[in-house]
Amino acid sequence: MTVSTEAVKELRSLTGAGVLECKRVLEEVGGNIERAREILRERGFAKAISKAERKTGEGIIDAYVHNGNRVGALIEVNCESDFVARTPEFRELVHNLAMQVAAMAPRYMSEEDIPEDEDGAAEELCLLEQPFIKDPSQTIRELIQEAIARLGENIRVRHFARYALGE
User: How many distinct structural domains can be found in the chain?
Assistant: First the structure.
């Protein structure tokens, strides 16, 4: 099946995957953009797993302060190379994660970090399990896995802190 250039562009803008990969997947699924997006997400997850053990010694720290200066967040996100840490895509990811921390007030990184006596759902308490504020159809973990697949390096949130006036 021949896939239109517009469909390839749309899938590429949705996923950030390469042009050839988008075209190949669209041909595979008969032009169904949603199914192609799902397949690319699964493939990105597989790439992320294969990179999970790589060391992350570079990265950036970002701060976000919400309008009114009453809530703010600091976050450290690491990657493998200084080159990737300086890319606009990585910087945008880190800034979005800082906004997530300020908006959703996670207390723990992942489900494994929750103490046994803690009440509450992992989706509320854990940064990696929370729905992304800009696209609730994906979790923060999935957002990071997509970035790993696009950038080709392991990415890890090392630390985060949220500050709110009066809390």
Answer: 2
Hey, what long-range contacts does 31-39 have (CB within 8 A, 24 or more apart)?
31/1, 31/3, 31/4, 31/7, 33/7, 36/11, 37/11
Count the neighbouring beta carbons within 10 Å of the beta carbon of residue 3: 20
Per-residue pLDDT of 34-92, as tens digits, reads 888 888 777 765 555 556 667 778 999 999 999 999 999 999 999 999 999 999 999 99
Tokens of 101: 């921390």
Instruction: Give me the domain span that covers residue 135.
Output: 58-164
d(CA 30, CA 123): 35
Question: Any idea which residue has 């967040």 for tokens?
Answer: 73
- Over the stretch 84-104, which tens digit does the pLDDT of each residue have? 999 999 999 999 999 999 999
For the chain, what's the residue count? 167
Structure-model confidence comparison of residues 166 and 41, the more confident one? 166
Do 106 and 127 fall within a single domain? yes
Which of 61, 89, 88 has its CA nearest to residue 75?
A: 61
Looking at the structure, do residues 142 and 79 belong to the same domain, yes or no?
A: yes
Q: Which two tokens stand for residue 130?
A: 């929370």
